[in-house]
Write a structure and sequence with these properties.
The protein is mostly helical and 118 residues long. The protein is 74% helix and 0% strand. The relative contact order is 0.15.
Length: 118
């Protein structure tokens, strides 16, 4: 089993944090539909700055041990995982069997991206 270094784990933690920020930036305002759109945009941009401050270094650090395709695949799986929790907990929207099947197919795709790695 390969040794997991900081370069392996830190990008994953940073991408999780990045996705929490970005999910709130993109979808958090849906709970405040009476707020002016310009204010929602401004708030979203302010939330997106810390997202970029995590995502960019996460990809720089991660590129030492992961390919760009692997980093992007991790990003997508993390995005769906964070969004699923956000959807249920913040937006109060239930997830159904169709969501589970779709997420499972994406996870299967991620599995194949990481195959063949020595």
């Amino acid at each position: 089993m390969p040794t997991l270094s900081t370069a392996h784990l830190l990008p994953i933690a940073m991408l999780i944090g990045s996705n929490v920020f970005m999910t709130f930036a993109w979808y958090g305002h849906l709970s405040y539909e009476s707020t002016a759109i310009w204010l929602a945009i401004l708030a979203s941009w302010m939330i997106a700055l810390p997202e970029y401050m995590l995502a960019v270094p996460a990809n720089r650090i991660g590129n030492a041990v992961y390919s760009a395709a692997e980093l992007k695949t991790m990003q997508e799986v993390i995005t769906l995982t964070v969004f699923a929790g956000f959807s249920v907990l913040w937006l109060k929207e239930p997830l159904g069997w169709n969501h589970a099947v779709g997420f499972a197919l994406i996870a299967a795709g991620a599995f194949f991206i990481f195959q063949g790695k020595a």
